[in-house]
Write the structure tokens for this entry.
Amino acid sequence: MSSRTGVTLRSIIIGLALIPPTAWWLAQIEYVRYSDTPTIPAIFFHCVATLLILTGLNQLIARRWPRKALSRSELLTVYALQVIGSNLAGHDVLQILVTTIAWVYPRASVENKWAELIHPHLPKDLLPSPGAALDALFKGNASLYANGNYLIWIKPLAFWLVFVLALCFTMLCLASLFRRQWDAERLTYPLAEIPLALSDAEGGPMRRPAFWVAFAIAASIQFLNLAHNLAPSVPGISLAPRYVQAKSLPWSAAGSIPFCYYPFALGLTFLLPTQLGFSCWFFFLFSRMELVAAAALGYQGWDSFPYVQQQGSGAYIGYAALVLWMARRHLAYAWKCAFGAAGDKTPEEEPMPYRLALLGSLLGMAFLVAFLSRFGMRPIVSTGYLLGFFAIVLTVARLRVEIGLPTIELYQRGADDMLLRSFGTQAMTNKELSLLTLCFWMNRTHRQFPMGHQLHSIRLAERSGMSMRGMAAAVGIATIFGALCAFWALLHVGYQVGLGTALFTGPATWAYGNEPWSKMASWIQSPRQPDPGAVGAYAFGAGMVFVLAALRARFLWWPLHPAGYVVASSFALMRLWLPLTVSWLLKTLILRYGGLKGYRAALPAALGLVAGEFTAGLIRTLVDVAFNLHLPV
């Protein structure tokens, strides 16, 4: 029998209770005002700050009413459920979907010709009906609940809710399948160390002075900048990236190189294994030098030779293939446990029975194929698209638990783009192009797939002695409730503010609404031909992953990890290369001259930088909403 404790009902209730206000707050801060971006990083600052505050309050309760205080595992459950809900309501998931499906009818015009180019090919059941109720969403000063405005959303959101839940369930099944293999490979889950440390009020880093010194430094910068925004005469310390670019060729081909100094980024990247940290910044600089070398040879076009972005896409697919190959024995073991003659013999501590995980993965993907096929996508196209999509999902999840970068991004170079570059837009029907456009929320940045957060939730359960099966069930409940709350919050706030008003200052209008449909119109008007160069870059990127993996396996001294090459083309990595390099250098020197003891002494300071900036960031956004300030990002 397992000695792990169960997930308690009160921790689930508290975690679920945080989801609706968090969804509303995200709609205000991230969707409407864009005064901060809590769900762009791989770890959400409001969830970390909430955990820190709850831990402090819990200590006060424990002194007065010890039996009523939450245990550490309960605090981590509350944190995990808030993360799951925030992910769905966040910048890279349902904020995009709601805007995309709302945009195409009201914003059609004579100039863009969407009515004749796009509207005839749209799956009507997946979109709100045009009319006064939809127009009110753009005009604002309205209510979701007045004049039957909510009625136009019931049918399309019901379809999308089923699709989203099937997607999340499939990812949870995959997370359950691969978790044991990745534990066997000793992947470190660097980002999970933050909540684990902050929930340990007795022996954690909060007992160390270095933590609070770093906390005060990071928080003070945030509060100083808040004071500067409120009173410009107060000096501020800009943390925004500063871009530097050479003025002449070939060096100018490297593009604008950002320099930024986020304290939280220094703290988070300090948790990375040194080999991975070195590989990340090395391959970032290597990708820039590729562009310089190509310009010296006369190649200067964007999205052409040396196809750095397409190399990245191929590397993601190659890394997924490498992950599957490395897990082949474990997957065979899981199959034997699930379908052996003696029945399902899954170890009791696993998040779900292997039979459910295997069947759920296969049937979940089959359902998603059938869903897209039901609305007009040929099965061969939907199958190819979803296989590519889940390959990228698997890679992103693996990178999250292996590297733990503050963020990962494959900007609009996912499975949809790979299909269109490989076969051309004319190989797709207009109905298929419309469905790929409706799936824009799945392919825009590839930053925030639920699978990464599911894996970290299970990791928290494993490390804190909780039932992983209980945590998986709690994650499932939070996913259903979180999706409903996300749809509600986005529409509730949207009708009040108005997507087309001056109060709506976020990028959603042009980035989530106009951009995907404008791209579809351009595909129809000017069909894209197959791009052999891009296809070659996909193969090259995948091949480089295999070569780097082979060299790393053959030579123990080999310093370059294939994961660094995979993320090299990430725009997000471009913005963080400097703190990544600095933290790698500091950690290398500390380990070399101070050993493990020196690293453990420095770790509280790194965690303090993260906690300080995150807590001050939450306070800043609460002040923004409370006083309706619309602070700049």
Q: What stands out?
A: The first strand starts at residue 242 and ends at 244.
